[in-house]
């Protein structure tokens, strides 16, 4: 009994490490930790913003229809590059769903994944998400290319990249909502 009292913290640490090694428990722990540390994304200062000058990008919706990203030119857009197997991507999806529920029709949302339609459909159904999911049919504009998941870009009406966030974030935060409201009020 003395052994347990003296070493309880070490035992808990070892159990935690074992849980991180086992694939069935690793992913839920990673998702939980990512949600815990996800903060509101930061806005890029005006002098450091880059401008999207090429909107040529073809996407296929889950309905099989082809969409042209250039239709979003002159509007506020949120582009999220993600995957169903990515724990930080999964961690931020509930905040995106809440944001989408309130801003759908005001902001153009593009959740882009290169995964197979079946995997994407199963994920959406399992989680009950109604997010607009797209698959790329052509290369994205160079400025929107990333090798990290998740990566999210927020594009103003004038084409400025206002947010360029890699990693999980809380997209349903009041500060981010204020940013979107400000971007929506801006004139072209």
Automatic annotation (TrEMBL):
Cited SUPFAM superfamilies: Thioredoxin-like
Pfam families in the cross-refs: AhpC-TSA
Thioredoxin domain residues: 48-185
Taxonomic superkingdom: Bacteria
CDD domains: TlpA_like_family
Name recorded for this polypeptide: TlpA family protein disulfide reductase
């Amino acid at each position: 009994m003395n052994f347990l009292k003296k070493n309880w913290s070490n035992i808990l640490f070892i159990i935690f490490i074992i849980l991180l090694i086992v694939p069935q428990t690793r992913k839920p722990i990673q998702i939980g930790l990512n949600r815990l540390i996800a903060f509101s994304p930061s806005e890029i200062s005006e002098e450091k913003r880059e401008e999207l000058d090429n909107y040529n990008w073809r996407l296929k919706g889950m309905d099989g229809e082809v969409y042209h990203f250039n239709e979003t030119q002159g509007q506020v857009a949120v582009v999220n590059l993600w995957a169903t197997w990515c724990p930080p991507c999964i961690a931020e999806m509930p905040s995106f769903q809440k944001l989408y529920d309130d801003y759908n029709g005001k902001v153009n949302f593009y959740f882009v994944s290169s995964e197979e339609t079946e995997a994407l459909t199963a994920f959406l159904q399992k989680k009950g998400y109604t997010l607009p999911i797209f698959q790329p049919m052509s290369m994205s504009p160079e400025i929107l290319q990333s090798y990290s998941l998740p990566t999210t870009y927020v594009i103003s009406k004038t084409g400025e990249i206002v947010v360029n966030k890699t990693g999980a974030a809380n997209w349903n935060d009041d500060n981010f909502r204020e940013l979107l409201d400000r971007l929506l009020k801006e004139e072209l």
